[in-house]
Amino acid sequence: MGNTEQSSLVAFNHVGKIYNTGTIALKDVHFGIKEGEFISFLGPSGCGKSTALRMVAGLEDATTGSVLVDGKEPKRVIRESNDIAFVFQEANLLPWRTVQENVILPLELRGGSAKEHKAEALRVLEMVGLKDYVKAYPRQLSGGMKMRVSIARALAARPKLLLMDEPFAALDEITRQTLQMELLDIWQREKMTVLFVTHNVFEAVLLSSQIAVMSARPGRLSALIDVELPYPRTLSMRTERSFGEYVELASTYLEHGALQKELG
Amino acid sequence: MAATMETLKTGAAEAARKPRGGFRRTFLNYYAGPITAFLIVIALWELVPLWLGMKPFILPKPTDVLKAAAEDWRILWEAVRITVVESVIGFLLSAVIGIAVSVLLASSLVLERSIYPYAIILQTIPVVAVAPLVVIWFGAGYNSIVVIAFLIGFFPVISNTLMGLNSVDRSMDELFTLYNSSKWQKMWKLRLPSAMPYMMAGLKISCTLSIVGVIVGEYVAGIGGGKGGLGYAITIAAVQMKTPFLFACGIAAAILGIAFYLVVNMIANRVLGSWHESAMKTRR
Q: What sections of the sequence does the record tag as coiled-coil (chain A) (predicted)?
């Protein structure tokens, strides 16, 4: 775990979160995330992994400690730039706007020329393979396509930091695999830092360069695993022995967290 | 084996017949019932007074009503015209002011909490009780009638729009926050469009109410004003015991209400058009 170094893009400094109901969502989470990392927050439901992600986006405040992005408070980063983008579990598209209009929303809210926005919309829609759907409405798209639009919208602002809260959880297996591979591709080309929340061990190992394993009640960081599988990764890697070892390692920490809870 | 083949064959034949009888089938399923019921009621209405020997000024037969309408069609037409103008103005006032006030209330929780309860109290006072006061303030005639129509149509717009403005999906709201949107950007680009379906539901209620409001208004205020709309024509017909004409006026008011509703409904479908479920269903 170690200290949160100066070089970290995202720094959790002894972060604790207690809800008004008395539930302890997070307890003394202390670590740093380096720029360019693809890090997964892996844990059972109720371990505070979503809460941690929402804190990085400034949507939630820490009760104790602090979360810093680029050395600044997340809310300040959001005020000043489009550096932080968020992808929710649902696509969250505005049904009265076309795909293109949905994608340019972040740019529109910040102002600027419509012509530039259009060019940017085309760039990101091409990236997610939806260039031919600019004029379509969300209801005409499948679940997977909607999520693609949602990702395109997040990319439209050219963020430094992409936060994703179980973005593929509601999709079918085949669509999920395709989107996982596309996301990795985009991550490598755009050189962003991705924070990815999941409860799926295989997904975490397949995608991440680093896994933050968390345990529930109270939510704590139980391990940081560096996944040293080479990129670009492929779906066929899942059958390799080293892949299996990482899955096993992560699972052990997950169970260990659960075990600790039962004992103590 | 032979038996199953037989049932398969008849099944296939039935399936093939279905699309061909499409129009006839929908006609029989959806329209035949109401039309038959309508004809039976009209026939009974015509025959029962005849059998009982009732006088037309007690219960006029449909033919009496038609005759009265035809004889005085000029008065009826003029009354309808005036009522239409008044209720459209009253409706537009309640739509515009209703939506504007909702946006204002929704933009501040303090404002909403302090003012909305009084809007509800205002709504519980019956229009008939307020109407004479309106006449004192605005004088007998058009102004008072429009104000009364506005008063009755105003609340459904406010309560529905406000509900819509306040039921925006939480993560959508957070998304806008993440993109540093201002309060008014959120209002114009997120809350108002999301409230559209609610707003349209409010307008649909309000448009039929505005006709009720106008007729009530004419009852109370129109008497002093001389020439008036349907409400005025109804009071005159009642005083003069012209019951068949009274019926004609009542039926005209009902048709007006339905027509007004259909127009607003059409506009609502046009506005929600491509994206909202409620509008899409009627399109299919």
A: none
